[in-house]
Predict the structure of Glucosyltransferase I RfaG.
Amino acid sequence: MKFSFLIYSYFPFGGQQRDFLRIANECVNRGHQVDVYVLRWQGEVPENLNLIKVPVNAWTRVKLYQNYTKWVAKAIADAEPSTIVGFNKMPLLDIYFAADPCFAEKAKTQRGYYYKLTPRYRHFYSYEKAIFGPKETTQTLILSPQQREAFERHYPGCDDRLHNLPPGIAIDRKVESRELATRQQFRKEFNIGDDDLLLLQIGSGFKVKGVDRSLAAMASLPEHLLERTKFMLVGQDKTATVSRLARRLGLAKKLTILPGRDDIPRFLAGADLLVHPAYVESAGYVLLESTIAGLPVLTTASCGYSFHIEKAQSGKVCANPFQQLELNEKLASMLDSIKDADWSENGLNYGKQADLYSMPQTAADLIEEFAVKS
């Protein structure tokens, strides 16, 4: 079979992008042809994918996406018939992989009334409605219960076109136990003492990941914890805003910011606690990657995979609606009891028992099934 995969931008360290590439590779390994239409591609291009860079430009992101859609629509119409699989919301799609949360829900809960009067709102809402509207037929692969609830709430009748996927954690992230040697080597490299407490946050897009919440919670720690605590941020985004906030909170000397990288398991082994108080997150693979590596997690209920943290008992989850005071209190209490708690062992056990690794295979199964039916 032939598939056309549509994604605006690829870079190696985004969750959406990693999911796209793993699903594309799984389809190719099954003998299918995969054309990929992309605006920007950062990093090595796999030889087994037919990469097509869409040659359009625009002054605004909305216009750029509209130009992309028009160009791709014509290119696909002129090419051999294929099943169209999208990783961003847009018209044209036979199948949508829901890497992003519900836009209508986000606009309602995180934006003011006048946002709905903007061209940006009209564009993104129309592109989402082209997938979930009552007359549409696009099949959607979803990652979490939160997504299902939001899409069904804003687009009644779409429920029979929503299909659950298991997580797709890379199997090489699964470990039997925390590696003491790796931890010691990591902490020596970054000058972290045996008695220091290292908070780790991982993710591209610092604003939506709630880095401001993390720093505020750290700044609120009682002195006996704050003096021992360091914060490490790893991800792809502009750093100036984070650095300014850290200086304002008196945390500049305790903060290390590193770009996205491939050796994340070393960081999971070397840290004491993952903090991930995201404003909104469809899934949040880093929550599960940390859990199965034995690193305790502090996150928010707005993350799609936060229910895994509760199920595994591998950390704590702040309730919705978010309250900074709750995050502050949970951070302090977790750091106070980090050495005696069962979160690490619980996470390791969860990684050995649960189905956390088969998303690419399940997604490819569903894509094949829908392609045959279309």
